[in-house]
Structure formats: C-alpha cells, structure tokens
C-alpha cells in the first residue's frame, strides 16, 4: 500500500499494520471510549493492568486516529499504566509527528488517556 497522502512515517506504519487491534474481553479489563462528534471519530482502549499489562484498541476514523490507538495500546502494553502520567496531546502529536490539521486525533487520544486515569483512580 502506497502512502499517497504523505502521512508521517510513525502514523503510516501503525495504520498499515495496526498491532493490538480489538478488544480485551476479560472480567478484569477496563474499557474506555472517547469520541469527537465534529469528526465522527471514536477511539476505544481496553486495558488489563497486569502484570503483564495487555492493551487493545478499536478506532473509527482516519488513519491518524487508528495510529493513535495503536500507539497508545503499544505504550501501555510495553510500559504499563505508569505511562499514563506522561501522555498528553502534545506528547502524542510530537511522537507520531501528527500535523496540526490532524491535532484533533491527538486530543481524542488524550481524552482516552484521561478516561483511563479516572477509571484506574476514581478518587482523583
């Protein structure tokens, strides 16, 4: 598949071969979802904190939305829930080299991260 729309490489690699797609259907898995009505995009992340951590994503949206979900699942599975404290939209934008016209995809990722933080620690 050719990258005719010139997506950044970190986005394109995760779009073409999205690892960790799907949903964890175990009783101990958390599942959160964020959506953007303006773009009709949806990003869902399911997480089993572990150890070992397991993470999966489902996305409805553009290639950047899919790449954000794949990256978040990758980071959470390899680094664990501690990674949630350092991930925000700016970090997602920078790491995946997302152009400003697709910044809403990084904000969607941040919304999922915030929902996970809240689900893991409701008192905060």
CATH architecture: Alpha-Beta Complex
What is the N-to-C order of secondary-structure elements (H for helix, E for strand)?
A: HEEEHHH
User: Kindly state the mean pLDDT as a whole number?
Assistant: 94
Number of helices: 4
Euclidean distance between termini CA atoms: 44 Å
What is the total domain count? Answer: 1
What structural class do you assign from the helix and strand content?
alpha+beta
Fraction of residues in β-strands: 15-25%
Q: State the low-pLDDT regions, or none.
A: none
* Shape assignment: globular
> Rg, please?
14 Å
CATH fold-level topology: Sufe protein. Chain: A
User: How many beta-strand elements?
Assistant: 3
The top level CATH class name: Alpha Beta
Q: Strand order, biggest sheet?
A: 1-2-3
**How would you characterize the largest beta sheet?**
3 strands, antiparallel
Helix content: 40-55%
